Amino acid sequence: MAPWTDWVPLISADPPPLPGVYLVRQCAGGPVVYVEVGAGARKGGGLRGRLRRYTSGKALASGLGEGLFDRALTDRDWLRERLTEVERGRPMRASQWGKAALAWADLYVCWALTESREEAMALESRLLAVPGVEWWNRARAVPLRAPKADARRERHARTNRQCSGSSSSSTSNPGPDRLRRVAAVG
What we know:
Elements: E1 8-9, E2 20-26, E3 32-38, H1 46-55, H2 63-73, H3 76-87, H4 94-105, E4 107-113, H5 117-128, H6 149-164, H7 175-184
Antiparallel strand pairs: 1-4, 2-3, 2-4
């Protein structure tokens, strides 16, 4: 396995079209929320092909796209903005909603290349097994609930602290450095 890259904004990520695994965190200093294999014969190939599906807004119903869209839909303010657009006669297409959800989530990504799809899948499994991570991955996801007003304000305040760097990642989330160490053991 190659070393992990630096974190970059998902919207500007340009990984190679090779097999590997990527980690996603919410905000530059936020918690790691997603891990997935980027390997296979899809157009564009490997990690590049996988991540480009998300940044195009066309992958709302699979993997990371579904996880981030599900969470955006629980944010009343984000959803209210979309409804206002509809009421004003300017509804967006589904892919535009996907891009709006991507901007809302402020995601950062890093990746590690692997020799094969099988190696990538084994690495993903090791990472998903790390306790204390609130994964957005469907197989490991924490059930979604629309937060009450006070809980929503607290979640936004916590996320803002994480994004501004005034707090480390969530106390329950082991953080990206620990996840990278787990990935290196194998």
